[in-house]
Amino acid sequence: MPWGEIALHSLALVAYPGAITLLLAGALAEWGAAWALVPERGGLLPAGRSLLRGVRPAARPLGLPPMATAAAVMALLAATQLAIPLSPVPSGERNLMVAAIALATAGWAAWAWGWTRPDLNPRLVLSVQAAWLVAVFVPAVVPENLRPETLGAVMISSLLPVKVACGVLYLLCLPVLMQLIPEAAPQGLPAASGRRDPGLEAAGFGLVRVLLWLPYCGLFTSLFFPPFGDDALGLLRFLGVTAGSGAVAIFVAANLVRRSATTTNRLYGWIVVPFGWFTLGLAMLVAAMHGA
């Protein structure tokens, strides 16, 4: 690989849309989630202080937590695959498969670390992960293309119902994928006390959730909206849609955390997962019509 390309990919991982960008965008999103999901903290400033305590270990770290480090690297890799304007990674080198595998790996690292937590629901996590994969890959079936910006640009009339269904399914999966409900949050809710241990690994996975906001929400924007202009205005529009998807996830999660676990199980077991099967069947029907 030429040195110029190595420099561009390094810039993408470290600065934009990599670590620095993910930390800034994720901190804002996590702050908003902490305020919305744990209102008893008493406002934005207390939520921000609780957030800082959550990602800071109680003891001085002796080394990097290995599982959290691996998950963070996967989040950075996923960010480089987004169809975000002004990205130093050429559009031809971005791949939906890489983004999906990286995000799934990061999520599973967190869930594997906290698998024994009493409130976690492995069945819920597995089923929602499968539904999310349907929402991610179904739009690529007919175009037979794995470039996120290409899939976002596809506006064939017969595919629009499939894209709309996949977009809705994606948004409904976000509260679980972003670990915003107790049944899917091994390190606890944003800025919430209780199940979060004061150790380095727990703080590391709190930081991982911060890093995952832009990759998950930005992938939604990349797949379901036409590419924005490769300029500052296009970047603002991309970030606006991405922030909107994050707000929807927080809104859904805020309603679920105020209700019982039975309500969450019914929503995902009776509505979201069957809707995933419906979306898959609709995509197969459309693909058969295109192949005829």
Describe the protein in words:
This protein is an all-alpha fold. It has one domain (about 5-290). The protein is about 65% helix and about 0% strand. It has 11 helices and no strands. The protein has helices at about 5-15, 20-35, 45-55, 65-80, 95-115, 120-135, 150-155, 160-175, 200-225, 230-255, 260-290. It is globular. The relative contact order is 0.17. The model is unreliable at about 60-65 (pLDDT under 50).
Short note summarizing the structure:
It contains eleven helices and no strands. With about 290 residues, it is mainly alpha-helical.
- Number of separate strands: 0
> How do the SSEs run, as a string of H and E?
HHHHHHHHHHH
The class by helix and strand makeup works out as mainly alpha
Largest sheet: none
Q: Report, as a whole number of angstroms, the end-to-end distance.
A: 42 Å
Task: Classify the helix fraction into a percent range.
Answer: 55-70%
Beta-strand proportion = under 5%
Which spans of ≥5 residues are poorly predicted at pLDDT below 50? Answer: 58-63
Number of domains: 1
For this entry, what is the oligomeric state of its chains?
single chain
**Average pLDDT score:** 84
Shape call = globular
Q: Number of helical runs?
A: 11
Radius of gyration: 19 Å
